[in-house]
Amino acid sequence: MSGELAEIIALSLRVTGLALLISSLIGIPLGAIAGLKRFIGRRLLMALLYTGMGFPPVVIGLFVYLLLSRNGWLSFMPADVLPKLFTPSAMVLAQTIISLPLVAGFTAAAVLGVDPSLRLQVRALGASESQAAWAVLNEARMGVLVAVIAGFGSIISEVGAVMMVGGNIAGHTRLLTTAIVLETSKGNFDLALALGGVLLGLSFLANLAMLALQGKSLDE
């Protein structure tokens, strides 16, 4: 494996992994709250999450670009507060926005799919509200795992948004997906196919690990 390819793979995993971690840390609690609680604006929140699940990634890229550009919507803020365009941080932000609605939306659907009587039974046994909520979330854990897998799948193969905010700069912001686009445009189809094979392999291994965790949960 060449040093350049190893660098591209490492950056792809770092950007996608960090974006998935952030979206999971925000999306799982948000989805759990949307599924468990009744509050004003709940329907609006669910509508926004479901809309975000189908939002075109390239539009997310445009949105992030307009947020972070020098004359963009947030140009009034100090330069050191926001990520800079054409950096890995900008790509992490774009991928987080793409995966967050999927993680939150599927988590909410998983929680809503749990038998409502479970929560009543747990409360009847003396559990607190937070303990009852945790019991429901634990029952929906496989659905939550699917939510994380869906979030991962939405960003590991995404190209439009990361190219728009990252710039596909060699040695700096070039990911596997953007490298495939570049090599295809240059007519290097053998290299593009090889990069595609690496991308598929990484996606397969990640999903295999997720399924192994899911199988362990089923055995418990």
Structure description:
- It contains 10 helices and no strands.
- With 220 residues, the protein is mainly alpha-helical.
- The chain has a single domain (3-219), classed as Orthogonal Bundle (MetI-like fold).
- The N and C termini lie far apart (40 Å).
- The mean pLDDT is 85.
TL;DR of this structure?
With 220 residues, this protein is mostly helical. It contains ten helices and no strands. Helix 2 packs across helix 4 (88-112), helix 4 runs antiparallel to helix 8 (160-166) and helix 7 packs antiparallel against helix 10 (189-219).
- Which residues form runs of ≥5 with pLDDT under 50? none
CATH class: Mainly Alpha
Which strand-content bin applies to the residues? under 5%
Report how far apart the termini are: 40 Å
CATH architecture: Orthogonal Bundle
How many H/I helical runs? Answer: 10
Set down the secondary structure blueprint:
Layout: H1 3-36, H2 42-53, H3 57-68, H4 88-112, H5 116-124, H6 129-139, H7 141-156, H8 160-166, H9 176-185, H10 189-219
Helix pairs in contact: 1-4, 1-7, 2-4, 3-4, 3-8, 4-7, 4-8, 5-6, 7-10, 9-10
List keywords for this structure.
220 residues; mainly alpha; MetI-like fold; 10 helices
